[in-house]
Every structure is written in C-alpha cells, then in structure tokens.
Amino acid sequence: MIKQPAYLKKGDKIAIVCPASKLPRGIDSAVQLFESWGLEVIIGKTVHAEHHQFAGDDVLRTEDIQFFLDDPTVKAIIAGRGGYGCIRIVDDLDFSTFVEYPKWLVGFSDITVLLCHIYAQYGIQSIHGQMPYTFNEATPESLASLKAALFGEEIRYDYHPSPLNREGYMQGILIGGNLTLLVMTIGSASEVDYEDKILFIEDIGERPAAIDRMMHMLKRAGKLNKLKGLIVGAFNELPEEKIPFGQSPEEIIWEVVKEYEYPVWFNFPIGHMDDNRAVVVGKKGLFIN
C-alpha cells in the first residue's frame, strides 16, 4: 500500500540536512524562499559541517537525518545537495518512527538512494526536485513545481519533445531518479520493483559508454521489459572521449528500449538542469503527451 505524507501548510516545520556531500556555499536565499512560503526552516548540523568531501562523517550525517526522521513536528526533510554519500548511511537509518509519521523527503541526484529506499521498503512517496544548493540557478517554474508538490497543488509539465519520442499516454506509478544510483541499488534493500511502473532517468558527467553499460545492466536485470513508460530527463556534462562512442545519450537509450511497445519521452525537464521540475516518486498518475 502506497503512503502519501501529509501535504504542507503554512506554519509547518521543515528541516534542511546534507546526507551526502558538503555545501560549498551558503543557502540563505533558499531558506528565505521557504520562509516566504510560510514555512519554518530548521537547519541541520550537517549544513555547516565537512569531512573531506562529505557534510560531516558518516556518523554525523546519519545522526542528523535520523533526528529529523524521528521528530513528528517536522513535516519535510530537504536535502541541501546531492554529490555522494547516501549509500554509505542508508542502512544505518532507523525508519520505524518515520513509517508511523511519514513526511516528505526531497532531493535528487545522490538522494535517489533515499527516495528509492523508502518506496521499496515502506511504500512511502517522496519528491524528486530542486535542492537548496541548486536554487540560485533554478528556473521559477522548477521552484514553483517544488512548492506545488509539497503543498499538494497541480503540477503542469511543458517540454519540447524529441523526434525519438514514441508517443502515447502513460498510466502507472512513477519511480526513478539518477541512472547511476538506480543501477547501484540493484540487489540491495533499496531496489525498487519496476514492473508496471513509469520509470524516469537522468544523469550527469557520465561517458556515453557508461550510459550504454548501465542501460544494458537494467535490461539484463529485467527492469525495462515490463514498464508502462519511460521518461528521459537531462544527460549532460558528458566528458570528452579520445575515441567517440558514436551515439548521443538519447540514441543510446532508444537503442536499448526500442523493441518494447510502451511510450518513451525524451527531453523531459528532470535532472541536473536549471529547469529541474519536481515529480512525486511513488505517485500513481496519468501522463499525456
């Protein structure tokens, strides 16, 4: 059974934590925006912590998010940024109180691990969307979509379809996130059931060969053949290669899934981009192209 956390209302408390990499700059403008939405913002210890590349060591990051998972007065936990580190602490988190008092977890990129975990283990919805570290560059539309997701308002998605798109409508439960992290969760407690789901994927900084490898891994693991649809977001900042792979990320993905009959949409506003629109992981819905 899918559980939806309560939508936010003015006066609610939210917490900002950094369960992965440290913040290289302040997030005062993000805090001010949340406050303009009528929310009370609590800053976790990890927001100003650092340990090598992380926002504090594994113990601190675990304790920080655990504190807010256990606090029933906090209605949403916002990841300050992604980077790397969630996979190091996810198995040390105790979600027993969180399951009793579900709240929104928000983030993308490395936060995919946490979003997948709470859906796979507990059937609890979460929000894949902009984080405070990305607020300064974020489009107004992407921030508006985050607010709408948190407050339970309608979200509309406008985008420019690709010639590779396979048209059609998709109906099902939405799952997904960062492609690298989705592959990394296979075989773990955070692995999501893909059957009859709408999958969305995005990534950054990966070589085309790596994207090809990960897509074939999903295919070999039986994750792609029973989907209701595939939504492809941004695949950007590709490193230069001495020997070109010969295909764009979109062409690679299409080559892997073209044999299936479900709709495939490219160029969707999800991922490491200014216009990263919020989507609710675990929500059942109808998407019409």
From TrEMBL:
Pfam families in the record: Peptidase_S66, Peptidase_S66C
Residues spanning the membrane: none
Name of this chain's protein: LD-carboxypeptidase
Keyword Oxidoreductase: no
PANTHER family the record matches: MURAMOYLTETRAPEPTIDE CARBOXYPEPTIDASE (PTHR30237), MUREIN TETRAPEPTIDE CARBOXYPEPTIDASE (PTHR30237:SF2)
Location of the LD-carboxypeptidase N-terminal domain: 14-129
InterPro entries in the record: Carboxypeptidase_A_C_sf, Class_I_gatase-like, LdcA_N, Peptidase_S66_N, Peptidase_S66C, S66_fam
Family under the similarity heading: Belongs to the peptidase S66 family.
Domain LD-carboxypeptidase C-terminal: 171-284
Alphabetical UniProt keywords: Carboxypeptidase, Hydrolase, Protease, Serine protease
Top-rank lineage group of the source organism: Bacteria
